Amino acid sequence: METYQAETTRYENMPYCRCGQSGLLLPSLSLGLWHNFGSVDSFENYSQIAFTAFDNGITHFDLANNYGPLPGSAEENFGRILKKGLATYRDELIISTKAGHDMWPGPYGSWGSRKHLMASIDQSLKRMGVEYVDIFYSHRPDPDTPMEETMQALSDIVRQGKALYIGLSKYNSEQTQTALALLKQYGTPCLIHQDRYSLFDRNVENGLLDTIGANHLGMIAFSPLAQGLLTDRYLNGIPADSRAAKATGFLKPEQVTEEKINQARRLNAIARQRGQSLAEMAIAWLLKDRRVSSVIIGASSVRQLQNNLKALKSPVFTDEELKEIDLITK
């Protein structure tokens, strides 16, 4: 098997943003392994996606213990990618993973107990074949486990050297405030907050972004293209080979509504006037906010990844464009 060697020019075109007030810089675009890196996918395809990402300055690879399908297979496959040559550049990589969603049977295979989190980090490290991850997230708040238990476990994982930083995912503003106070008390400040954010899902603007900014966290957005709705794929309905038509996909046909299609068409018209694709504009729109440290992109092909990278060369939005976008999406 041929061993991967990175391009020497890999840092020339990628901007890096400080994560809150920390010492950590993240690439403006990060690669998410939620889709396309599971046991149902092609190793040749997704390994080339990962290598192309790094060749273009994407140093951050975002995973979770349950990513696949099957759950765990994305981490296992990322471990294979590391062995194929990416591990040579481990000190240039940010590897993040998460725990909190359903992962194994029984009462300890999910949520935010110390039992689940401690087992999860050990399993993740083993699957990927690494000694530590750079960021370990609580993947979702647990309504039944005391927040003190979850945050203490996260802090201890850092103290044990299994993660360098702690992050929160999908915590609302109030939950985030509580978690931050506890982590500070335990001596392990939170680095970053990850949540869904796109032109079609602006819920984080209802207080959470302000909380993130006020507490000097980094913010990283996932699903920036709303599972493909903010691309030209669905402007005329659901293609047979699209994510919405895929049995293992998370985008369901009933989510591709006429209202969303019409909104996408109007946004697409603005993008075309700007000399961009709809996807490029949607990603660039997120990056205009300085509180957003990075945007997680997914890709099913090298070509799709390369197209998304074009968002980094986006023209600045005019006030008129932003007002028109708000009229369509708010």
Which descriptors would you attach to this protein?
single chain; alpha/beta; 330 residues; 10 strands; globular; two-stranded antiparallel ribbon; eight-stranded parallel β-barrel
What order do the helices and strands come in, and which of them pair?
Blueprint: E1 16-18, E2 25-27, E3 29-32, H1 43-55, E4 60-62, H2 73-83, E5 94-99, H3 114-128, E6 133-138, H4 147-159, E7 163-169, H5 173-185, E8 190-196, H6 208-214, E9 218-222, H7 258-273, H8 278-287, E10 292-297, H9 302-309, H10 319-329
Parallel strand pairs: 3-4, 3-10, 4-5, 5-6, 6-7, 7-8, 8-9, 9-10
Antiparallel strand pairs: 1-2
Helix pairs in contact: 3-4, 4-5, 5-6, 7-10
How would you characterize this protein structure?
This protein is of the alpha/beta class. It contains ten helices and ten strands. It has helices at residues 43-55, 73-83, 114-128, 147-159, 173-185, 208-214, 258-273, 278-287, 302-309, 319-329; strands at residues 16-18, 25-27, 29-32, 60-62, 94-99, 133-138, 163-169, 190-196, 218-222, 292-297. The strands form two sheets. Strands 3-4-5-6-7-8-9-10 form an eight-stranded parallel beta barrel, surrounded by seven helices. It has a two-stranded antiparallel ribbon with strand order 1-2. Helix 3 (114-128) packs parallel to helix 4 (147-159), helix 5 (173-185) runs parallel beside helix 6 (208-214) and helix 7 (258-273) packs antiparallel against helix 10 (319-329). The mean pLDDT is 94.
